[in-house]
Amino acid sequence: MMYLLAKYALLFLLTAVLGFVLGYWFSRRNIVDVSESFEDLRKANDRSDILNWDRLWKHLDAIPEPKEVDLSGVYQRLDTVSNAVTSLPKPAPVDLEPVQNEVGSLRNAIRDIPKVETHAPVDLAPVTSTLGMLEQRVNSMSRPQTVNLAPIDQRLTAIETEIGNLGRRIVEPRNVESALHEATRKEPRILKAALYGRQDDLKLISGVGPKLEKLLNHNGVYYFWQVASWTPQDVDVIDERLDVFKGRITRDDWVNQAKHLETEPTAARMPSE
């Protein structure tokens, strides 16, 4: 048994030595081959560089030498310009004495200006404190409640309308026949003020603007149902009171427009009485 083990150990040792020798020989051979290849490559590059430089120098030698530029014409023109500049007359010296005198007088005038005396700062603390007290008192005062003067304004407007109508009747003379006709003619229903709720927006009637609406209110017309109830005689009466707007009622058909507008939900309703 010991003999076999010694035999195997000796065989393994011989195999290891043989492998080491073969490996060293193979690696040494490859190193030599690579070194020779690198040396050949370096020599080839050197030869290529020498050929390239020779080719470059040949191209440079083939370039013709530049010709000398003739600058005689330029020199002649420069001489001409130099002579022209030399021959220019010298400018006369400028007399600055009047300017210096004027500057001196201005300096003296500025020096003679009296200096402004500085006043002591004004103490506004009392005024500021008084204004602060007034502001506090004004803010502490109870504000008056707003008063609705719309009904009074409407009543005054109606009164002005009646007074205006009376004035026109007194100023404009009429004959007896027209006076009798006015007395027998039935007046349209006019109001002294918008007494049946909020007045309608008469501007919704085509042809009625802000001025014409104000004139209608001045003559006691505030609602669509008033215009819708006009008869031809009522139209004549109101038309005479429209001054420069005469003829608008018939031309724009206010009555039929008002009949349509009085049915709208937002329109005021005609009173039953």
Q: Can you lay out the helices and strands and say which pair or pack?
A:
Blueprint: H1 2-62, H2 72-87, H3 97-112, H4 125-140, H5 150-171, H6 176-184, H7 210-218, H8 224-228, H9 232-240, H10 248-251, H11 254-261
How would you describe the overall organization of this protein?
The chain has eleven helices and no strands. The chain has helices at residues 2-62, 72-87, 97-112, 125-140, 150-171, 176-184, 210-218, 224-228, 232-240, 248-251, 254-261. The N and C termini lie far apart (150 Å). With 273 residues, the chain is an all-alpha fold. Residues 171-185 have low confidence and may be disordered. It has a domain at 153-261.
List keywords for this structure.
273 residues, mainly alpha, 11 helices
